[in-house]
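I am writing to request your help with a piece of structural work I have in hand. The matter concerns a single protein, recorded as an amino acid sequence and a row of backbone structure tokens. Could you please explain, in whatever detail you think fit, how the structure tokens follow from the sequence? Thank you for your consideration; the sequence and its tokens are set out here:
>
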Amino acid sequence: MKKGKPPTFDRELKKLENVKAWLDEMKKLFELHNYIENMKTSIVIFSLKGKEYIWWEYLNCVRDIRKEDMVWHEFKGLFMKKYLSKR
């Protein structure tokens, strides 16, 4: 079986239910292929588009957060704080 292409995330998915649906799709992809933790983070970052990828670059450069050191649940926490927190 070929590995599935991960869904992308961009501003089109800004609504709460769409953000949760994207996270659920990523979770299913990870469960299907049994990826190691830091590979999950790499796949998710690859799936970010536009301003969402710029957000990641900000974390990477300014806050010195590297994907090699981050596991999926840590990334998911930062992501949820960014996209699901009340503004």
About this structure: The chain has one domain: 15-84. The two ends are 42 Å apart (CA to CA).
